[in-house]
Amino acid sequence: MSTTPLTPQEIQQYRAETRGTAKLIHFNNAGASLPPDVVVDTVVNYLQEEALWGGYETEAKYQPALDNTYDLIARLINARKEEVAIVESASVGWGLLFNGIGFKPGDEVITSEMEYVTNLMGFLNVQKNHGVVFKVVPNDEQGNFSLEALEGLISAKTKLIAVTHIPSTAGGMMPIVAIGKIARKHGVLYLVDACQSAGHIPVDVQEIGCDMLSVTGRKYLRAPRGTGFLFVRKEVQDSLKLILMDSASAEWVSETDFKPRPDARRFELYEKNRALTLGLGKAIEYALNIGVDRIWQRIQYLADTLRRKLSAINGVTVHDFGPEQCGIVTFSVEGFDAATIKSKLAERGVNVSIAKTISTPIYMNKNHLQSIVRASVHYYNTDEELDKLCEVLEAIKS
Fold first, then answer.
1. Alpha-carbon distance 110 to 177, whole Å?
2. Does the keyword field hold S-adenosyl-L-methionine (predicted)?
């Protein structure tokens, strides 16, 4: 993989290929990135062809490109094509996988205090309905995930380790490769929520050692909303129950029997938005052409620079932690709530988001945080845009 930094000329090219960068400063990439023009055009052109020629007819014309999306996903995460499925979002994919596990009373699920609220509700649901116990590995005194504590919680009843790689409301990251080694050592199923990871940092399911992984398209992949995909290791596919099925996800054998597809697309249904599927593929292709390792290098530079600049502003507190931090930068401004800061920045053409307690409740409650500002950078952001954010904050405080 190349580690050559993105050049100023390349960054300007990517900005020129993204209409939105000419209109505003977008630091809400952890919510939804600005898509490249080619992604938007791909979706719009497909919809126009559907309107002119018919949905099924247009699908037949573009079938090779639609199929190629699976190849692109496999290449992005170092998986086999038969191990990926396209879904509407990371939450849909995660839910299909998690709820497909055959939980029994007394089974245990282990997670972290950085887990996303939707996933936590999934744990609570199986706790209430199936008598499953879920355990939380607390962060250590430095705020980092404790691998030693994880190993200490594993028992003969441990059914699943499930973690979110990059949390919604903090700039740290979970050590998912090290967790994977522990999961394999103990023969425990391992599910990773990588909704903030793909297109942000290189993701290699072989290195991670996960059995299952869920991804959304709208965040760092710069794909349209309503897109996502999941990875299911071939060896575990038959062990998962199908929550939904149709004649595309399973084969009709007789009036008394059917059998699932022999690949991960058993977790899909036939009817989906083909235009968005093409848009997802085009977004992944765009990222691969740049190089996710180069994207990650650029994001680290921008995020580290922003944290340093924010920390130099009197009254601004940066809340991120961990030995390796990502493109999500969380902070608070003394004397102002997060909603006010977000609103005042928006008035000046700067998009940020609010990281709320509800998103990662265990972490936020433990650290007595209610809502903080989340500025999430991407490779198409610039140093000048970082300076503008800080200038606005200085003006707000003065």
1. 16
2. no
